[in-house]
Amino acid sequence: MVRRVIIVLIILALTSWIYMSKITSQTKPQIQPKVLNQEEKVTKVAEPRIEAEPLPEPTTVLDYLPAVTGLTAEDEDLLVSEASSQLFSDDVYVEGFSLHIRATECDLLDAEFMKYQLSKSEKGEGILSKKQEQCQQWKARFPMLSAKLMWNQKSNELPAMSQLGHLIRAFTQLTDPIERVNYAADIFEQGLKEKNPYVLDYIMTHSVYVDEELTAAFDQNNAYSDLVFSTAVDLLSCEYSQEEFCGAGSWLMLNKCSSNESYCGLTYQQWFEQNFMPGMKQDVVLVLEHLKAQGQYINEK
């Protein structure tokens, strides 16, 4: 009896399963693969490809500066004329470069902090006023070379006619630190040869150049060696252009006047005498004499 009941249950279960399978097969959607006809195939192949936009050309800092527009033939002639003044060099590129560096001092004086610091004392304010008048005279005489954007974008139109000119032009484009140091040494040597204070000042400011062989005797103290060497270079530049580079109204001394009122009105040599100990003065003079001899040797080669 039990066996019959089990068989009946099995038969009912099979019947129910068959019935449900039929219902599922009837309601389940049949997804057929789409077959493209010939026209659709041709259209698909003929669709144009979207090309990637070309990468932009490498840029420099100058690409982000506003363009100098409206430069006439007369302006270009004026630029060359200003760079032919021969105040610092017979090479028009070096001359233009030097006059432009000098003009940047006037831009620095326009800084509000500098004006504020110098105006804190009557002597500092008087020196600043005199310097500003001088800047106006420079700008009136050299309007093209006094304009920063003009020099940055048009300086390559000036021909470099000397080794120093070619070195400076190349140096301003270098980014590799090692190359810059190598070029700096050559530019410094040529600056000594031409006795150009603005070239020496530029290379001391824009590189880490120090004559390591010359300063090796200073107990390997890098900070001390750097100060001795840079001070000697400044004193040498004073001999090249005293009033303009080392007078009380020079940028060098205006900068010191802005930090300490007692320095206002001093020349660079007077500041040096007041602020250096005897032993350090001796080291500076030693380096200074070496630089003079080096410059003389270069001129005699």
Structural features:
301 residues, mainly alpha, globular
Spans where pLDDT lies below 50 across 5 or more residues? 1-6, 22-69
**Computed structural class:** mainly alpha
| Helix content estimate | 55-70%
- Tell me, what's the shape? globular
* Distance between the amino and carboxyl termini: 131 Å
Q: Average pLDDT value?
A: 78
Count of DSSP-assigned helices: 16
Largest sheet descriptor: none
Annotation, overall tally of beta strands: 0
Radius of gyration over all CA atoms, rounded: 39 Å
- How much beta, percentage-wise? under 5%
Order of helices and strands: HHHHHHHHHHHHHHHH
Word description of this protein:
It contains 16 helices and no strands. With 301 residues, it is mostly helical. The chain has a domain at 70-161.
